[in-house]
Design goal:
Length: about 230
């Protein structure tokens, strides 16, 4: 099937389809990275046009998800992959769904921008580490896409450390905003919305952790969720 010819591995039709699937996942990751970046930028600058762009482009994210799902199904039906190839297709199917949910959360953040009448105080956003949360989340997506492409479980496992940092920011946020509300009772609604934004960022961290687990499953045939259940 994949014999060595002149020192090189011969690419089969299945190999080509799996490579194409990897490229599609990378494109999906790049797409939701841009969505998330624009959503945070729209919120911090109250750029409602940018927020509307994020919401409009959600259609593209959904269309890409459906295409990748169909490609996974076609590979299963036409090539009957086994072993690591089968795990790759299963992982791609789930990673695709997790990335689409990242896009959903980016859209949700952009929607809050449309309700804003004035910017949040820069001091508050800095204390909440909102931009840092985005930077960590963005790097998690990039790391996951690289780990999936290279079948690199070491890089995938780095995601868990970054998720801890996201969780710490999320843990501190409620107290910070609660104290701020006491001094700004006229801004309760946008501040509550800001709590929801932080929760969505925390959820994006969890989705990236799920993607990392799928990569480890694909490469090592190791299902981490069962290990968590034992713990």
């Amino acid at each position: 099937m994949r014999e060595m010819e002149n020192g090189y591995k011969r690419m089969t039709h299945l190999d080509l389809e799996l490579d194409r699937l990897k490229n599609e996942i990378a494109e999906m990751g790049n797409l939701v990275q841009h969505q998330l970046k624009k959503s945070i930028e729209s919120l911090t600058t109250v750029n409602k046009d940018l927020a509307r762009e994020v919401m409009f482009q959600e259609r593209r994210v959904n269309a890409e998800e459906l295409k990748i799902d169909r490609d996974c199904e076609n590979i299963m039906a036409l090539f009957n992959p086994v072993a690591i190839d089968l795990r790759l297709v299963f992982a791609a199917f789930k990673i695709n769904a997790h990335l689409e949910r990242v896009g959903d959360n980016a859209k949700g953040i952009a929607r809050y921008t449309l309700d804003l009448e004035e910017p949040y105080e820069a001091r508050l956003l800095e204390e909440l580490n909102l931009v840092k949360m985005w930077e960590v989340s963005d790097s998690m997506i990039a790391d996951n896409m690289r780990a999936f492409e290279k079948a690199d479980t070491i890089e995938a496992r780095n995601i868990f450390r970054k998720d801890v940092l996201i969780d710490e920011f999320n843990h501190d946020a409620t107290g910070i905003i609660a104290e701020y509300i006491k001094a700004h009772t006229d801004k309760v609604v946008p501040l509550i919305n800001l709590i929801s934004v932080i929760r969505k960022m925390e959820r994006i961290g969890d989705l990236n952790k799920n993607i990392a687990e799928e990569i480890i499953f694909f490469v090592e045939a190791n299902v981490l969720k069962h290990e968590k259940e034992k713990i």
